[in-house]
Amino acid sequence: MWQDTSNSYGASTSQNSYYGQQASTPLQFYAPDANSFYGASRPSLDGQVNPQGSISQPAGYSGSIHYSGGWWTAFGTGGLEGEPPLLEELGINFSHICDKSLTVLNPLQQIDERIMDDADLAGPIIFVFCFGTCLLLSGKSNFGYIYGVGLFGSASVYVLLNLMSEKGIDAYRVASVLGYCLLPMVGMSAVSVMVSLDGMFGYLLSTIAILWCTYAASGIFVAVLRMSEQRFLVAYPVGLLYGCFALLSMFK
């Protein structure tokens, strides 16, 4: 019994000496290097912290975005840097609209044959809207007739011009010319808001407006298509078209 106790005591003493030897040895932990773990450094980061604590930008990645004004500058001629104005992207150029409108208002001047190189429908849409609005204010709600007559008339004039000329013209330019030359008819519809055109004054004013629109439109078509010897043939169907618009302005 005593011998067993001594054996157990000796075993415990040897175990304590073993653990004491292990405890005397300092523990070592492996701390891997971040650069060696990822294989390389991270130069693509936005910034690096130097020992002083400030952030430095990497070389070759500097730059900033500068705005020349607020968001409303996109509607002007300046806009954002490197971006065209919004109206230019939509195909709206007020200077060209004014030039073409002045050409219609003064049809006796020399018409440039390249006036419709920059054809647009912004001006015609504005004039058609004003024409329908004036008729509505005078008690004539004819928006459907205006669109119907305008669409059918533009298609008919487009077919006739391409059959008569060797150069040819596209439907977009035909609609643009007919829409711009509607400007005198818009003035007549504005007069109908204040004065009734169902009388001698209205007949005379309508005749002047029809001749004005027809002369301006035929002059532009002849200048663009170089059909100076066929102006009366061009003016006849155009005059019929503007005559329909005049009837919409005169009668309910």
From TrEMBL:
<feature type="transmembrane region" description="Helical">
    <location>
        <begin position="203"/>
        <end position="225"/>
    </location>
</feature>
<keyword id="KW-1133">Transmembrane helix</keyword>
<keyword id="KW-0472">Membrane</keyword>
<feature type="transmembrane region" description="Helical">
    <location>
        <begin position="177"/>
        <end position="197"/>
    </location>
</feature>
<feature type="transmembrane region" description="Helical">
    <location>
        <begin position="232"/>
        <end position="251"/>
    </location>
</feature>
<dbReference type="GO" id="GO:0000139">
    <property type="term" value="C:Golgi membrane"/>
</dbReference>
<dbReference type="GO" id="GO:0048280">
    <property type="term" value="P:vesicle fusion with Golgi apparatus"/>
</dbReference>
<keyword id="KW-0812">Transmembrane</keyword>
<dbReference type="Pfam" id="PF04893">
    <property type="entry name" value="Yip1"/>
</dbReference>
<dbReference type="GO" id="GO:0005802">
    <property type="term" value="C:trans-Golgi network"/>
</dbReference>
<comment type="similarity">
    <text>Belongs to the YIP1 family.</text>
</comment>
<dbReference type="GO" id="GO:0006888">
    <property type="term" value="P:endoplasmic reticulum to Golgi vesicle-mediated transport"/>
</dbReference>
<feature type="domain" description="Yip1">
    <location>
        <begin position="104"/>
        <end position="247"/>
    </location>
</feature>
<dbReference type="InterPro" id="IPR045231">
    <property type="entry name" value="Yip1/4-like"/>
</dbReference>
<dbReference type="InterPro" id="IPR006977">
    <property type="entry name" value="Yip1_dom"/>
</dbReference>
<protein>
    <recommendedName>
        <fullName>Protein YIP</fullName>
    </recommendedName>
</protein>
<feature type="transmembrane region" description="Helical">
    <location>
        <begin position="121"/>
        <end position="139"/>
    </location>
</feature>
<feature type="transmembrane region" description="Helical">
    <location>
        <begin position="145"/>
        <end position="165"/>
    </location>
</feature>
